[in-house]
Amino acid sequence: MSRESLAGQLKIERDQPRPRRSRGGGSGRWLVWLFVALGLALAVAAAVWFLVARPDLAPVETAVAKSAWSEGAAHGGSLLDASGFVVARREATVSAKIAGKVAEVLIQEGQHVADGQVIARLDDSNAKAALDQSLAQAAAAQASVQVAAVNLEGAKSRYDRTKTLPHGVLSDQAVQDNLTAFDAARENLALVQRQYAVSQATVGVYRRAEDDTVVRAPFAGVVTATAAQPGEIVAPVAGGGFTRTGICTIVDMDSLEVDVDVAESFISRVTPGMPASVKLDAYPDWEAPAQVITVIPTADRSKATVTVRVGFKVKDPRIVPEMGAHVAFLGPAPTGGRAGERAVVVPPDAVQTEEGGQSVVFVVADGRADRRPVRLGERTAAGQIVAAGLAPGDVVAVEGADKLRDGSGVKVVKRASG
């Protein structure tokens, strides 16, 4: 091949158009659409999860408020209201029966004591010494009785022998002397026996005096105050100086009741045995069932009032002496069936107490929690009585209610029984 032909093959034709290079445009658009589809799928999944799981909603358990016959609802409302104080029918300031120095005090405020329980002891050294002396005197008297019995036996034996001797062996004077000795021995034995009985009684007196150094509770109750301390002198009556008259004060909590003053113009509305409701100043949302015990048959002319005793139907540790109380005297039960609608029963955990003592519940409706202030009645085996603020059939939050606020979104996870 010639050199010219080779050069012609290597020649580049500049006028011929170049073919365009593909930059992969089709595959790029496919990747874009893929990422868009994945994003939409993730968004849809997140929306479905949010609508189903709803992490922004508070999970709660609920219960349905049921109709209840509370003390106030079961009657025809209040006929009369009065104020008074909680008092104890059995309350005693306990002291020793004798004057003495306190050796030890075995109780403190708030302690429950049983009937006859030892609450204090006085110094018993003098009482023990006197008791020991009386015991020694009693022992001596007992020995005298034994000696007199021996002497009587000897005198009787001599006199019996005298009676068996033939007449004339002894003179009449000797016979009379033996009889006199026998009678004297017999009377001496009776005398020392009486002396021994006196010594035994003296022992009993000093033993009682020693027992009086031990102070015991007169009845079961709660110690509300202590007055004496070890080393102080106490006496059953007021004395001079630093002598105290009491060891402690004991109150029988089962005897608590309310004394209220009712105006004379309204006392005709109150009768013994009528139902009542007591609300303590310390617990304004709690209503305790009660009953009129009696109307004191005398009036206070300065206040134109009559005192009424009202007893509690239930015992509760929240009731303490001297608390202020408001009493509502209730009328007879209505004949219709609407009275029970004013009171419902709910689980106790459904009731929340806010700062200031206000009791509230949260009613669940349309996925929201509605805060409801309520007035409480007594707590029974069925649950907490709500005297006002709820209606039968209201759905209330129970478990998780303490985390709710008014208007909070809720999600019912379980329905509690009750």
Q: How much strand content do the residues show?
A: 25-35%
Helix and strand succession? HHEEEEEEEHHEEEEEEEEEEEEEEEEE
Distance between the termini: 112 Å
Structural class: alpha+beta
User: Tally of extended strands?
Assistant: 24
Residue ranges: pLDDT <50 for 5 or more in a row? 69-74, 334-341
Largest sheet: 6 strands, antiparallel, barrel
The CATH architecture of the largest domain comes to Beta Barrel
Total domains, how many? 4
The CATH topology name of the largest domain reads conserved putative lor/sdh protein from methanococcus maripaludis s2 fold
Q: Could you give the order of strands across the largest sheet?
A: 3-12-15-14-13-16
Number of helices: 4
Average pLDDT figure: 80
CATH class of the largest domain: Mainly Beta
Gyration radius from CA atoms, angstroms: 49 Å
Please give the structural blueprint:
Blueprint: H1 3-9, H2 25-53, E1 58-64, E2 66-67, E3 78-88, E4 91-94, E5 100-105, E6 112-113, E7 118-122, H3 125-164, H4 172-211, E8 214-216, E9 221-226, E10 233-234, E11 248-251, E12 256-263, E13 275-280, E14 288-300, E15 305-312, E16 324-330, E17 344-346, E18 352-353, E19 359-365, E20 368-373, E21 375-380, E22 383-388, E23 395-397, E24 410-415
Parallel strand pairs: 1-24
Antiparallel strand pairs: 1-23, 2-17, 3-12, 3-16, 4-11, 5-7, 5-10, 6-9, 7-8, 9-11, 12-15, 13-14, 13-16, 14-15, 17-22, 18-19, 19-20, 21-22
Helix pairs in contact: 3-4
